[in-house]
Amino acid sequence: MRTLCIDIGGSGIKAMILDATGKPITERQRVDTPQPADPAAVIDATLALIGTLGPFDRISVGYPGVVIGGVTRTGHNLGDGWVDFPLVRTLEDRLGKPVRAANDAGVQGLAVIEGRGTEVVLTLGTGMGFGLYIDGIYVPNIEMAHHPFDGKKTYEERVSDRARKKIGLERWEERVREVVDQLRPILNWRKVYLGGGNARRMTSSWPDDVVIVDNTAGLIGGFKLWADAAQAKKRVAKGA
After folding, report:
1. What is the pLDDT of residues 59-95, one digit of tens each?
2. Which CATH class is domain 3-106+218-237?
3. pTM for this one?
4. 8 to each of 11, 61, 88, 97, 140, how far by Cα in Å?
């Protein structure tokens, strides 16, 4: 059972195939996200990308916004046309394989959390992603990035890639620290994981409750979207 994992981002689309144990069996492939990033252009770019990877049996997609029932509800860092777009059905029709999709930060967290207590993922890329987990269970579609941070700008506006380029890495990293410090006494996490393409740029030390994770987690976590399918297969094999 091979899982094709896709990570749709505001600046890049990534893909990788994992084996039946969730280990990569291909290199991570990437193309720039087309501009404008409307659904038709993104789907076409994704299909061209995965055509280089080889056979697969099922598909997981991390999407940078709210996904409910396989339908995207927002697309803040993409183009127009993503409100109420049937992402899962479209990919299933085009590829003939079963598809599951979730928020990209949520998918990334599935690859790195320990499954104990309250854990949080913040992804730092084109925008800011957020994932909350309670004893390993993902609480989907909390759009913390678009909540006001200081009454004037949102969390995402403060720590977006655009902000980093405008104010420089040092000041941007201070802002990331301010975000972490503001959320810590609200969520009282056991651990917070900082991921996304810009997390690797940070150079200063962090408290013990903060963990920097590799951006490939955004793909590897897609395997966990099918965890219930694996359990169901085991039950059938046992005749339960």
Report:
1. 999 999 999 999 999 988 898 999 999 999 999 999 9
2. alpha beta
3. 0.91
4. 8, 7, 13, 18, 17
